[in-house]
Write a structure and sequence with these properties.
The chain is an alpha/beta fold and 307 residues long. The protein has 10 helices and 8 strands. The chain has 2 domains: 48 residues; 235 residues, Rossmann fold.
């Protein structure tokens, strides 16, 4: 009897160990897709040392990050800024002002697992066009306070903190937003509840998070780590400011059909630019066209807003 009991419990223990060992790589795979997890910084440093790129690539020309540490390396005066969100988080930011008082401003919002550094290349041409530029690290990214990403709702508080700072410093009279992927989702989530954004550039935005290849890459249901992600496709009909939607046909994270769905959902005035680049690569694949399309949208929106 004792022998049978020992064999029984031994079998149960072995089965439990097997289930745990089977579950660990599944859970770990999903956990490391979450921008803030206890081990993410260590894993990221290890991959950097081993020269491992964990992210799939699309087509077109990949981003060529400038060898700049901050805007000063691009010969631009800037201020180190700390933004404070409504839920008490501190966000690291750079503010690059122009000399003209009352100049319009642009908020740059980076993508998932990115940082303000990845947006640096956009600063010089926006600044040269007469725009103040504010770029920051989302919560759980870069040098900002650590907090799990929500793919839109909480990040909207980060954008609102940027709007608060611009308003408090006399640079919030006209504000455009340019966002990549997660950054675009944050702008949409902000615009439905805050009328201080005057125009939006939505680059590589998803129509529905659960339909993206990134979300489908989870081994478990896509909302188990990031629950309740709002659909930009459902939010856009509530936004009544000029919108430019940019997407690449070689985007294998968010397929190009998302852009067509977003364009159909958006109100006029709206523009759509489809090219053959990868996910959030359009600014690097076709820089001249990208800059012209963005500046045209912002300039036209400003003229519309002028009495």
């Amino acid at each position: 009897m004792n022998k049978q009991r020992v064999l029984y419990w031994g079998f149960v223990l072995l089965m439990a160990i097997g289930v745990i060992l089977f579950a660990i790589p599944i859970v770990a795979s999903d956990l490391f897709r979450q921008p803030y997890s206890p081990l993410w910084d260590d894993v990221n440093r290890a991959m950097d040392r081993l020269r491992i790129d964990p992210f799939p690539v699309g087509g077109g020309a990949p981003p060529q990050w400038p060898q700049w540490r901050d805007p000063a390396d691009a010969f631009l005066y800037y201020q180190d800024v700390t933004l404070t969100t409504a839920d008490g988080l501190s966000l690291a930011a750079w503010y690059v002002p122009v000399l003209e008082p009352g100049a319009p401003s642009v908020i740059l919002t980076h993508g998932l697992l990115g940082s303000r550094w990845t947006m640096l290349r956009m600063v010089p041409w926006l600044h040269d066009a007469g725009y103040n530029v504010l770029l920051f690290d989302f919560r759980g990214h870069g040098d900002s306070d650590k907090s799990p990403a929500t793919i839109g709702p909480a990040e909207a508080m980060d954008v609102q903190a940027a709007l608060d700072w611009l308003e408090a410093n006399g640079a919030g009279e006209w504000v455009g937003g340019l966002g990549l992927s997660l950054g675009a989702a944050a702008l949409v989530n902000t615009a439905v509840q805050d009328d201080r954004l005057d125009a939006l550039v939505l680059d590589s935005l998803f129509a529905d998070w659960s339909d993206t290849d990134f979300a489908k890459g989870y081994r478990l249901p896509p909302d188990w780590l990031v629950p309740g992600v709002p659909s930009p496709e459902e939010l856009l009909p509530r936004i009544h400011i000029p919108v430019l939607i940019i997407h690449g046909t070689a985007d294998i994270l968010t397929f190009v059909d998302h852009a067509y769905r977003l364009y159909a959902a958006a109100n006029e005035p709206k523009e759509l630019w489809i090219n053959d680049s990868g996910h959030a690569w359009s600014a690097w694949t076709y820089p001249e066209i990208y800059q012209a399309r963005v500046l045209q949208l912002f300039d036209t929106a400003r003229k519309r807003a002028t009495p």
